[in-house]
Amino acid sequence: METISIINAKDYVDQKVRIGVWLTNKRSSGKIAFLQLRDGTAYFQGVVVKNNVSEDVFKLAKEVRQEASMYVTGTIHEDTRSHFGYEIEIEDIELVGQSEDYPITPKEHGTDFLMDHRHLWLRSKRQFAIMKIRNEMIRATYEFFNKEGFIKLDSPILTGSAPEGTTELFHTEYFEKDAYLSQSGQLYAEAGAMAYGKVFTFGPTFRAEKSKTRRHLIEFWMIEPEMAFMHQEESLEIQERYIAYLVEKVLENCDYELDILGRDKEVLKRYTQLPYPRISYDDAIKLLQESGKFPDVKWGEDFGSPEETYLAEHFNKPVFVLNYPKAIKPFYMKPHPTREDLVVCADLLAPEGYGEIIGGSERATDTEYLAKQIEDAGLNKADYEWYLDLRRYGSVPHSGFGLGLERAVTWITGEDHIREAIPFPRLLNRIYP
Ligand code: ATP
Ligand code: MG
Ligand code: MG
Ligand code: MG
């Protein structure tokens, strides 16, 4: 007899197996007990029929409490009525760990309560589905960039300077010096691109943003590819191929999880069709003004969530907005060749209200220009000498972008709030558990 995982039950129909499980719920009458079971790979039902098992086993089936852990032994049957399609007819139960009164019962709980119990909430079916999809997206990310000839190059989390300005930084002590938690690995990725051509970083990033939105975390994971000898247009092609690849792989490998979440797969399929539309920032402003819905929108301002939502909904697909005003973008972006008030950049906006999932640009290559930009941004030039060296020694056109993993997970899973897209979310008022 083999010990198996629930997910493999389909290969063991009519065979006797043993599975290590937790009890998620149960229902019983005098003659039969239905145990809802999970093992981390899937959820299914165990049936215990009083007449077919020993008295002790039936008694145990009635005594085990929600979240008790046990080994069950029995025969796998098809179960066409259930979503999973298989169940186990239990012959024997070995209790491993009985459970105390479990706080998360099948009744409705408020968000604060669930967040206080995040370490247990992760066991629920929807959270399982989200984490599996997150995992698939990470797996597909490595696969995609490896296939495209990138190498993963890790950037430091403790840094001595602040690329995106100083307001949203976490400060800490570094022996006798100051240090900051990384807001982005980009500048280091640029050094990587100059060394190895095509690289991507993937790590946690931190923003001390005192805002409470459905799209912002304090700690989030970012994937930041950087490519040497590459202009913006080619970078956009990589970005859309990457997003389509993520969606395709989730459709291919997470069918069960998408069903648990009730995510519309036809909508997801639409996102695999390339190319994504491209619109200039100038035209995006016109579109918003002409819609009549945004009377206050003015050229020169960054978009908020309603504007981003409107733009992506207008195209019913992810849309690239190109070439924003220089004044609202970071110092390292390449100036536009014919419009000195613009930079060569693009944000990719996701439909269904999820907003910016990628921010990217071509990078400035001129040493003098960058040195001035650094000064104008009020940054300490000495901290950036190493970055200027990347231009001093064989500067090439190069481009890169950053995708917020949790933004993308929230969008692809169709969840309402980004807090469910990461195992232990860090939010403005929450650092426990
Ligand atoms: P936003 O406009 O939504 O605040 P941003 O322009 O400040 O985002 P970038 O610095 O361009 O963000 O970061 C690149 C990507 O990282 C974004 O496109 C988004 O996917 C993600 N991201 C940025 N800030 C956060 C955050 N606080 N929480 C989760 N993801 C984030
Ligand atoms: Mg921001
Ligand atoms: Mg933005
Ligand atoms: Mg951005």
From TrEMBL:
GO molecular function: asparagine-tRNA ligase activity; ATP binding; catalytic activity, acting on a protein; nucleic acid binding; transferase activity
Location within or outside the cell: Cytoplasm
Enzyme Commission (EC) number: 6.1.1.22
Superkingdom of this protein's organism: Bacteria
Self-association and partners: Homodimer.
Family, similarity comment: Belongs to the class-II aminoacyl-tRNA synthetase family.
PANTHER family: ASPARAGINE--TRNA LIGASE, MITOCHONDRIAL-RELATED, ASPARTYL/LYSYL-TRNA SYNTHETASE
Protein name per the record: Asparagine--tRNA ligase
Gene encoding the protein: asnS
